[in-house]
Write a structure and sequence with these properties.
heterodimer, A: mainly alpha, Cytochrome C Oxidase, Chain A, two-stranded antiparallel ribbon, 16 helices, 2 strands, disordered N terminus, disordered C terminus, B: mainly alpha, Four Helix Bundle (Hemerythrin (Met), subunit A), 5 helices, 65% helix
Chain lengths: 590, 212
């Protein structure tokens, strides 16, 4: 296949397996990432539904569930340790195996060569390997749900010493070992992917595609890849030390004096806070690894459906860079109550409030883009607008939580749960949905059903607010995260109807996603065919390629770029968009 | 309401077409300036950045834990000194090999490359022997925090260096098949970069362990 990346791209038909399964074509790898991550989303989403069931009706006996999952529902009531494993697995699957994978792995692979005008990634084989290692990591984490001792219990953050001592709980043996293995594999896969993204964007742009003519999606993917490159190895380092604590008898994270089963354990002298520092040094940039590509994609989609250039392209790029740099110095805001030096807490408050500045610049730029526009309310456009809404809603509560004085009160309550879901899960989810509706025609040569798409949008938009907005209130009311049964606490009992409301809303929200899944799968085979290359009248290079693009993407000649990607509604022009490939001379005639 | 347009980027001609040897991959954007690094160089530097961040994470853990009351220094194996010297010599050999191919002196390129690889292997065997020294002294992985770090840091570094030895071996095979010339020797260049950084990394780790 490598010969096709040279000038004379030789087309030779490959068999089914080489073409669609063991492919080194970036488009197929992107779609493989998308579909694998969507499958993981179904798993992660189902787990969250079980959690909502438990939180709304904690002591209800369900013989059906008891029969279906006898280990988890002894006597028809969910076991506490099963609930905690749901929390852990839901968080882990969603953060790593859905959001990180779908945005950088899925859209990154599909879009990078197409949007910069390249035939494929810089290292196609490495790219394929990245997907297969990712798939392996998915299988490993998925298998943690089925080991006899149960899935890990330590939360997606796997805090030590709980995670460092295999005897600390039923899922802390094999479960945590599988967790660490999956994360290590995921890191390796992410490194291979990131290596490709950075190299491809830097060296393989087509003629005329200067850095400042890149679509914002490309900028966001480049910055994300650099973030991942710097953050993931630190998590790997922490994982290695944790593995040695568990299996090699070392004591990096285990302090002396822990008593297990009435016996003092043999470890001595470690520092549990060290795990938190290492984890969050990775963990906070990870938030931006998820959010930045969402920002880039939403910007491009928003501009397309507003028929206006993105407001302040340069500031969009600079603020993404600023966010990336600052994201490495804010990790302590996750640890205000951990016993860290309070002076350090003040420093982290300052840096955290600082990162709100570039985030706000981006938000105002999106508003500036939407302002006065004749918006085309397609499903993709709606989801891009929804992204901005979610980012603002989740971002504003972040200012409270980033301030140590307020956070000490709100730490580990549902206020935090509401905040991070809106800002780092739902906002990227909206961007990913927007991206799917937008690029689906290019991926599969068919449209997704627009009516179903809009129904899906409104169900999701309203559903998400019904689920997460009340969580702020019960959080301020004192409901703690990760608790198994709120009704065990007298002061939480009056709030229980809110939990029931949230759960019903969550079930409707979950059912709404089935509409999307149906639409996605149905449209691959039977959606309306796309008859033109550029159905949305967009400007970027992928829309100048055939639909769906063949091997090598652009046919005989690579496109040549003459302008930035946001020439929408240029005054005096007949069309309200000018693709990046239209030469200057055409404009000069006016 | 007027459409709010903040800025319009001027439309300009594309930069001149680059020489054909980049065939089909397009050129590199900014007019007249090809991207200064090749794909392979960027790839190796990205890999090295990841490795450096891995060890940065580990050494930050080391520095934090050095402050806990239960920290106990171990006596580092004396073999580390000759090992370090051997590794530095291997870097010199690899560098001589790279210089030789620049002069198109293929024969000495091959010899120095083989010497570099052999010295690298000697270092790895030396590190295993250093472990042996420690074990004989009764210092094991879980003995003290510093011994845990010593085994893990030197082990991980050794594994990464082993990768470098394999890469040197592959380049040596390429050289023996006369596939490297003074005009085309990027594999050797990339290997040398990796090797020097890994050597530097060991010197850093050794100093970190010594200066406790």
């Amino acid at each position: 296949m490598s010969e096709s990346h040279t000038g004379e791209h030789v087309h030779h038909e490959l068999g089914f397996w080489r073409k669609y399964v063991f492919s080194t074509d970036h488009k197929i790898i992107g779609i493989q990432y998308l579909i694998t991550a969507m499958s993981m989303a179904v798993v992660g989403g189902t787990l969250s539904m079980l959690m909502r069931y438990q939180l709304a009706w904690p002591s209800m006996i369900s013989p059906t569930l008891g029969k279906l999952m006898p280990d988890a529902f002894a006597g028809g009531v969910m076991k506490p340790e099963f609930y905690v494993s749901l929390v852990t697995m839901h968080g882990t699957i969603m953060v790593f195996f859905l959001f990180t994978a779908v945005l950088t792995g899925g859209f990154g692979n599909f879009l990078i060569p197409l949007q910069i005008g390249a035939r494929d990634m810089a290292f196609p084989f490495l790219n394929a390997l990245s997907y297969w290692v990712f798939l392996l990591s998915c299988i490993v984490i998925f298998s943690a749900l089925f080991v006899t001792t149960g899935a890990p219990l330590g939360g997606w953050t796997s805090y030590a010493p709980l995670s460092a001592i295999p005897a600390a709980g039923p899922g802390q043996g094999t479960g945590v070992t599988l967790w660490i293995t999956a994360i290590a594999l995921f890191t390796a896969s992410g490194l291979m992917g990131g290596l490709n993204y950075i190299t491809t964007i830097l060296t393989m742009r087509t003629r005329g595609m200067s850095m400042m003519r890149l679509p914002l999606t490309q900028w966001s993917l480049l910055i994300t890849a650099i973030l991942a490159l710097l953050a993931f190895p630190v998590l790997l380092a922490a994982g290695i030390l944790l593995m040695f604590d568990r299996m090699g008898g070392t004591s990096f994270f285990v302090p002396a004096g822990i008593i297990m089963n009435q016996m003092p354990i043999e470890h001595s002298g470690g520092h549990p806070l060290l795990w938190q520092h290492l984890f969050w040094f990775f963990g906070h940039p990870e938030v931006y690894i998820v959010v930045l590509p969402a920002m880039g994609m939403a910007s491009d989609i928003l501009s397309t459906f507003c028929r206006k250039p993105i407001f302040s392209y340069r500031m969009m790029v600079y603020s993404m860079i600023a966010i990336a740099v600052l994201s490495f110095v804010v990790w302590g805001h996750h640890m205000f109550v951990s016993g860290m030096n309070p002076f350090l807490g003040s420093v982290f408050t300052l840096t955290t409030l600082l990162i709100a500045v570039p985030s706000a610049i981006k938000t105002f730029n999106w508003l500036g883009t939407v302002w006065g526009a004749r918006i085309r309310f397609t499903a993709a456009g709606l989801f891009a607008i929804g992204f901005v809404s979610m980012f603002v809603s989740g971002g504003l509560s972040g200012i409270f939580l980033g301030t140590s004085a307020a956070d000490i009160q709100l730490q580990d309550t549902y206020f935090v749960v509401a905040h991070f879901h809106l800002v780092m899960a739902i906002a990227p989810l909206f961007a990913a949905f927007g991206g799917l509706y937008f690029w689906f025609p290019k991926m599969f040569g068919r449209f997704m059903n627009e009516t179903l798409g809009r129904i899906h949008f409104w169900l999701t938009f309203i559903g998400v607010y019904c689920v997460f907005f009340p969580m702020h209130i019960i959080g301020i009311g004192g409901q703690m995260r990760r608790i198994y049964d709120p009704t065990q606490y007298m002061f939480l009992v009056p709030q229980q109807p809110v939990n029931v409301f949230i759960s019903i809303a969550a079930f409707i929200l979950g059912a709404g996603q089935l509409i999307f899944l149906f639409n996605f799968l149905f449209s691959i085979f039977a959606g309306k065919r796309v008859l033109e290359r550029n159905p949305w009248h967009a400007t970027t290079l992928e829309w100048t390629a055939p639909t769906p693009p063949g091997h090598g993407n652009f046919g005989e000649e690579l496109p040549v770029v003459y302008r930035w990607p946001f020439d929408y509604s240029v005054p005096g022009e007949k069309e309200d968009f000018i693709p990046q490939t239209v030469p200057a001379t055409v404009v000069a005639k006016q | 309401m007027p459409i709010l347009v903040e800025e319009r980027r001027p439309v300009g001609p594309p930069p001149p077409i680059k020489p054909a040897d980049r065939g089909g991959e397009g050129d590199f954007g900014e007019s007249g300036s090809a991207f200064p690094l090749s794909k392979g160089q960027i790839g190796v530097w990205i890999l090295l950045t990841a490795i450096i961040m891995l060890f940065a994470g580990l050494s930050s853990a080391y520095i934090v834990l050095r402050g806990v009351p239960s920290w106990q220094n171990i006596e580092l194996p004396s073999l580390l000194w000759p090992n370090t010297a051997v590794l530095l010599l291997s870097s010199v050999a690899v560098e001589l090999s790279r210089r030789a191919i620049r002069r198109n002196d293929i024969q000495s390129m091959k010899s120095w490359l083989a010497v570099g690889g052999a010295l690298g292997l000697t270092f790895l065997i030396g590190q295993l022997a250093a472990w042996r020294q420690l074990v004989n002294a009764g210092v094991y992985l879980p003995s003290t925090l510093q011994s845990s770090f010593f085994y893990i840091l030197s082990g991980l570094h050794g594994l990464h260096l082993l990768g470098g030895v394999v890469a040197l071996g592959i380049v040596l095979v390429m050289a023996l098949r006369n596939r490297l010339t003074s005009l085309r020797y990027e594999p050797l260049k990339l290997c040398a970069t990796y090797w020097h950084v890994l050597d530097g990394l060991w010197v850093y780790l050794f100093l970190l362990l010594l200066l406790s």
